[in-house]
């Protein structure tokens, strides 16, 4: 009897990879939409679901999945705050995740966003698109070799971005609660106040822990940033106080903000509002500050290499659990 998986959030250009990498011959039901309360019935008849970020793995959906006989609730993402681990444990459902995929996918996006703001590329192209080809004073820039870039969170992704900046001769600072030997070889570790005060670009690579660092990068942190600096977030929206950051952009305290993540993004990302407001106050406010504020639709992992890792590791997670009863990537409620 084949093992049937309902995979959610599968884009059209990802279908071939799901099929080509299916070496264990799972019976795949590939669904374009993320899992929601409205489409949970699509999992009926399946043994497992494979989610992506912004899928709804709350108690309501988990209870319904249990009623359908779905014992395995896996996600192909590093983040797993979209799955209620306590509810899954209560239901006897096994949850597993992908602890890492190609770190270059996110680090390259963070690097590109920082450089786009620093060199005023979005600002200039927005003007030329409107027919304005005059060079303005606010398009004046500093060359990369004279920049100081601060990496907050020096895990694999943070260090890969540091390597990119080092490759173009920027000075790179780092801050992490647990400095690594690899980090010490690549960048200069400093304290938080120093990295905020000295950096022309700050890039966040900090995991989100709801009970300890919600909105930790707040108004006080922004106030300590170097005037005219740039902030980039390709980690988790919940680690930042976006209201404070947008205030700083609007006032000119910081030059710009680029983010691949927003709070409540499940109600926005994946949709086309055709130029109309999203209905989310902070998101709409951020959009009005374009091109000083850049938002990408959580595309940090949207590369061929990252997709390969996400799918391959997910398939291995299923195989491990089915053949051994567990996996090194199984998640437990805390």
From TrEMBL:
Residue intervals passing through the bilayer: none
Domain D-isomer specific 2-hydroxyacid dehydrogenase catalytic: 10-331
GO molecular function: D-lactate dehydrogenase (NAD+) activity; NAD binding
Span of domain D-isomer specific 2-hydroxyacid dehydrogenase NAD-binding: 113-300
Any matching Pfam family: 2-Hacid_dh
Keywords of this entry: NAD, Oxidoreductase
SUPFAM superfamilies given in the database record: Formate/glycerate dehydrogenase catalytic domain-like, NAD(P)-binding Rossmann-fold domains
UniProt KW NAD keyword: yes
Record-stated family: Belongs to the D-isomer specific 2-hydroxyacid dehydrogenase family.
Protein name: D-lactate dehydrogenase
């Amino acid at each position: 009897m084949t093992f049937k998986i309902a995979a959610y959030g599968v884009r059209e250009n990802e279908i071939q990879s799901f099929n080509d990498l299916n070496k264990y011959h799972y019976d795949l039901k590939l669904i374009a939409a993320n899992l929601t309360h409205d489409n949970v019935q699509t999992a009926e008849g399946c043994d497992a679901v494979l989610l992506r970020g912004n899928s709804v793995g709350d108690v309501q959906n988990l209870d319904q999945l249990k009623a359908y006989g779905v014992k395995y609730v896996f996600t192909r993402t590093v983040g797993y705050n979209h799955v209620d681990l306590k509810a899954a444990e209560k239901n006897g459902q096994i949850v597993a995740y992908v602890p890492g995929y190609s770190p270059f996918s996110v680090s390259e996006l963070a690097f590109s966003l920082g450089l786009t703001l620093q060199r005023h590329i979005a600002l200039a192209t927005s003007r030329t698109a409107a027919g304005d080809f005059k060079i303005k004073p606010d398009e004046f820039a500093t060359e990369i070799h004279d920049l100081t870039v601060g990496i907050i969170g020096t895990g694999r992704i943070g260090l890969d971005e540091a390597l990119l900046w080092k490759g173009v001769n920027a000075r790179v600072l780092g801050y992490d609660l647990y400095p690594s030997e690899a980090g010490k070889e690549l960048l200069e570790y400093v304290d938080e106040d120093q990295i905020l005060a000295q950096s022309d670009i700050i890039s966040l690579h900090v995991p989100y822990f709801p009970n300890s660092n919600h909105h930790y990068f707040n108004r006080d942190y922004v106030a300590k940033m170097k005037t005219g600096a740039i902030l980039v977030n390709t980690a988790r929206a919940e680690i930042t106080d976006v209201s404070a950051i947008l205030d700083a952009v609007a006032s000119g305290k910081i030059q710009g903000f680029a983010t691949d993540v927003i709070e409540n993004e499940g109600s926005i990302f994946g949709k086309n509002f055709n130029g109309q407001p999203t209905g989310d106050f902070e998101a709409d406010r951020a959009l009005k500050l374009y091109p000083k504020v850049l938002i990408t639709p959580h595309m940090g992992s949207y590369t061929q290499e990252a997709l390969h890792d996400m799918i391959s590791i997910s398939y291995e997670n299923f195989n491990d659990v089915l053949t051994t009863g567990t996996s090194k990537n199984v998640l437990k409620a805390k």
